[in-house]
Structure formats: structure tokens, C-alpha cells
Amino acid sequence: MPTTAEHFAAAGRNQRTLSLLLASGAEHNPWVAVVAFYKALHLVEGVFFEDHDEVHTFDHWQRGNLLKRTNRYALIYKSYRPLAEAAFIARYLLPQGSDADSPVVDFSVQYSPEIVQSRLIGHYLHQIEQGVTKFVAWPPDLARCV
Question: Which alpha helices (H) appear in 28-115, and where do they start and end?
């Protein structure tokens, strides 16, 4: 089971990848959403490790459920859920929880370059980073999204 430091190291790798994708243009915005979500996932798992005596979740449903039902994570969950939704649409072209008969969602129609930059990165990922600092000291070598 990865420790907080190992999760934060993974978040750092995701941030470096995110920076490269953001610099390469809007064509890669679906992957920006996915990588931003996985940075958030590792930040959240680092909090869980510290805050719950080394708790680790093993799937997206379990992680989202723990965030949702734990009051002190409410601010993190409020931004984590829509970031997860955007990443799911980017990867599968379907809203989270959809079945095979659901209509396909075009990521670039729902998430313009401005929305990816301002909402997914500038708001949701930023809010998750802020929320994490309420539980764990931010490592000096881990870059923030903004």
C-alpha cells in the first residue's frame, strides 16, 4: 500500500505531465482532464493514508463514496466529483455511471478549452489542492496547478 509520500510523488509526476499537456495545446484537453483527475486521486489517497490510519481505497466508487460520506472531506468532494466526471467522459465518451445504451458525449463540446483551463484546472483541481492542505502539509517539491 503506497504511503502519503508515494502518493504525493505520483501526484508530482502527474503535475509534470499536466504541465506538458497544457503547453501543447487544446488538442490534448481530454488527457488534461484525465491527468488532472489522477493527480487529484493521488492527493486524496495521500490524505486517506494520513487521516485514517493507512486507509487505501481500491476503486473509484469506494474513493468517491468515502469522500462523499465523510463530512470533513465535503470541500474536496465538491470539486473531486466533477473532475472525475470530466475525466470519465474524456476516457469513455460517456457520463460516469452510464450504460452501453447511453448517448456518446463529445468531450470537446462539453468542455471547451476555456472550461478545461478555468474550471477543471483553475477551480476544481485548485480547490482539491487547497482542501488537501487542511489534512496534510504540502510537500515543498510538489508543484500546484496554478
Answer: 29-51, 60-69, 74-92, 107-110, 113-115
pLDDT digits (tens, 9 = 90+) for 34-61: 999 999 999 999 999 988 765 677 888 9
Q: Which residue has the higher pLDDT, 93 or 73?
A: 73
Domain ranges in the chain?
4-132
What is the 8-class DSSP label of residue 73? G
- Read off φ and ψ for residue 107, nearest 5 degrees: -55, -45
Q: What is the pTM of this model?
A: 0.90
Cβ neighbours for 125, distance < 8 A, ≥ 6 positions apart: 36, 39, 40, 79, 83, 145
The predicted pLDDT at position 142 comes to 84
CATH 1.10.357 given to domain 4-132: no
Per-residue confidence (pLDDT) for residue 106, from 0 to 100:
84
8 Å CB contact between 102 and 95: yes
Q: Which three cell numbers stand for residue 7?
A: 502518493
B/e letters for 101-123, b = 16+ CB within 10 Å, e = fewer, are eeeebebeeebeeebbbebbbeb
